[in-house]
Amino acid sequence: LNKPEWYLTQVLMWIGNHAKFLDEKIQPILDKVGSSLNAGLEFSRALVMLILEKLAADIPCLLYDDTLFCHLVDEVLLFEKELYSVHGYLSSFPSCMHILSEESCFQRWLTVEKKFALQKMDSMLSSEAAWISQYKDITDVDEMKVPDCAETFMTLLLVITDRYKNLPTASRKLQFLGLQKELVDDFRIRLTQVMKEETRASLGFRYCAILNAVNYIATVLADWADNV
């Protein structure tokens, strides 16, 4: 259960190793009889179906172990990425995201995603470099004077988007968007709390850094507004 990468990698190797044989030996036979099937894709589809069976059996066994469950989700997402980008798998075919979209599994994924995101926010705001810009010494790069915590937070949101963008239904994507909105609001509250501590020094370093953080986040969210 703690090594889903073993069978996921094995399947990717089988797909890659058989590609030439399927393309050069089997595809001409299919073409000769007038079939519209693609030998390589059908081979991939059959192997993915085996993975779906395996996942369906494994997920109930690790649903309440955060570490194992997170590892499984991470490995499945990496597998899917390679399957589509390297092996040309079709989005209309069955995929692992359908398994991750099933109710019990999906709700667990959301819960764990939120838990780890909040932990990340705790660590980024308690870091000594939280209010310092990574690029403070490079003036042409750092016009917005973005503090490290704001940049890390927006990267966190971007990574979450990247993880859920291939979910098969809009309703599931919207639930993840709801989580991101919660995180933005949580970050806003945390910034407000820090700002209240700094009101006596409103021209101080940290107070200005908070204003820069808010401006940066608002700007990036506006840029993302065109992303359906």
Explain briefly what this protein structure is.
InterPro entries: RINT1_Tip20. By secondary structure, the chain is mostly helical.
- Estimated share of beta-strand residues: under 5%
Count of spatially separate domains: 2
Low-confidence residue ranges: none
Q: End-to-end distance, in Å?
A: 36 Å
Radius of gyration: 23 Å
**DSSP E strands, number:** 0
Give the overall form. elongated
Q: Main sheet, how many strands, which sense, barrel? A: none
Structural class call reads: mainly alpha
Mean pLDDT: 91
SSE order in H/E notation? Answer: HHHHHHHH
Number of helices: 8
Helix content: over 70%
Describe this structure in words.
This protein has 228 residues and is mostly helical. The chain has two domains: 97 residues, no CATH class; 120 residues, no CATH class. The chain has eight helices and no strands. α7 packs antiparallel against α8. The longest helix has 29 residues. The radius of gyration is 23 Å and the shape is elongated. The two termini are 36 Å apart.
Key words describing this protein structure:
228 residues; 8 helices; 0% strand; 73% helix; RINT1 protein; elongated; single chain; mainly alpha; 2 domains
Helix and strand arrangement:
Elements: H1 4-32, H2 39-62, H3 66-85, H4 96-100, H5 103-126, H6 148-164, H7 170-197, H8 205-224
